[in-house]
Amino acid sequence: MFITVLERSLSLAQHNMGTLLRTGWAYIVLLIALNFAIGGVLMPESGFKTVSYMTEPVAAVDEGALRLLAAAANLLVGFSIAIAYVRRILIDAGDFPLTFGGRTARVILNQIILALIGLLSLIPLAIVALLLAAVTAGVGLLLFFLAPFIALMVVQRFSVILPAAALDDPLTLKESWRATSGLGWAMAFSALVMSLLAGFLVFAWALLLGISDGLMPASVLWQQIRSAVFPMGTMLILVWVFASFHATFYGLIRERFAGRLGLKPADYTKADEQKTAASARARKALDGVRRLRRR
């Protein structure tokens, strides 16, 4: 299932690069203007020593605060692009080029909740790892290193609420957990691969902008442009990779969208089989616990 989902996610992203640009063009312009203005304020007299104002060392507290504000603004616009992208793919929505409202707030709130779930998941895992380390250091150390991946699996099982919120689907955390039964490890491994892909693409984008100094005439204007397009491109890469990934899993639990995402009937049939098998194992384990209690 991991290979199938990863392949479908990559295929969806590959075939919808144009969709991303068509739905997000106004946000892209806004991102460039926003980062150009902030980069102009933060630019030192000697110019930027790195690719962007976002990657420059923080020289003062005020600069750090302004950079945090810029990061928040970039994330807000990035979520808006992701919402427009997912809605265009799944329901052919033709939303206004710039839209900020309750839908955007719900998606951001859900993302914050997922981040908190991930952090809270690490606490019991770390405690268990420390307790095991006191008895057998090898097992405890192994669990300590596996804890972030286990937390990632937990977060991914809840993460379907993100595309659901973009489509105004009232999917709850409980329903997301149940709907992704049997898919947790496939989601976690896929998320890890997609994260590595996003990291590689951001690195390549920074490298491309870094070597552009040798191709473009040295000027303050070009430094400001380069500084502005780096965070813009980074947000587009993250949206393109992760929105495609989450949309694919949403299609697995909402069959009516599967065809639009390139998923075959065999794909979500296999997903249903894995969910059924996982539910059966859970019921068997629960019955075993009940029998022990009766004794």
From TrEMBL:
Keyword vocabulary terms for this entry: Membrane, Transmembrane, Transmembrane helix
Segments traversing the membrane: 24-44, 64-86, 107-135, 141-162, 183-208, 228-253
Keyword Transmembrane: yes
UniProt key word Membrane: yes
UniProt protein name: 4-hydroxy-3-methylbut-2-en-1-yl diphosphate synthase
Species this protein is from: Roseibium marinum
